[in-house]
Specification:
Elements lengths: L1 H24 L20 E6 L9 E5 L4 E4 L4 H19 L3
GO biological process, one term: immune response
Protein name: Monocyte chemotactic protein 1B-like
InterPro entries: Chemokine_b/g/d (IPR039809), Chemokine_IL8-like_dom (IPR001811), Interleukin_8-like_sf (IPR036048)
C-alpha cells in the first residue's frame, strides 16, 4: 500500500510540474525584435507583415519575404511606413476585386 501511495504521489507531482511549465509558455510574446534590418526592402520581396506584441520592449514590424524569411524592421523608419502603406493599399484593392 505504501508503494502505491508513493507512485501516485510521484505521478501527481509530475502532472503538476508539467501543467505549471506548459502554462508559463503562453505568458510572453512569441517574437520580439532586438535588432532591425536597416536596408530598404522592395515591396516585390514582401508577402505580408505582422506587428510585434505590445509586451515587446521595442515596437517593430516583422516582414515576411517571398523566401519565407522574417525581417525585423523599425516602424518609425520612413521606408517602412511607405512599405506598410503600400501593402495595406494592395490588401484593400485585392479584396475589392472579388466583388
Amino acid at each position: 500500500f505504501r508503494m502505491a501511495r508513493l507512485v501516485l504521489s510521484a505521478i501527481v507531482l509530475m502532472m503538476a510540474v508539467i501543467t505549471f511549465t506548459e502554462g508559463l509558455r503562453g505568458v510572453g510574446p512569441k517574437k520580439c525584435c532586438f535588432q532591425f534590418n536597416d536596408n530598404k526592402v522592395s515591396i516585390n520581396r514582401v508577402v505580408g507583415y505582422t506587428k510585434t506584441s505590445q509586451r515587446c520592449p521595442n515596437p517593430a514590424f516583422l516582414l515576411k519575404t517571398v523566401a519565407g524569411r522574417q525581417l525585423c524592421v523599425s516602424p518609425s523608419a520612413p521606408w517602412v511606413k511607405e512599405l506598410i502603406s503600400q501593402l495595406e493599399a494592395k490588401k484593400v484593392s485585392g479584396s475589392n476585386t472579388n466583388l
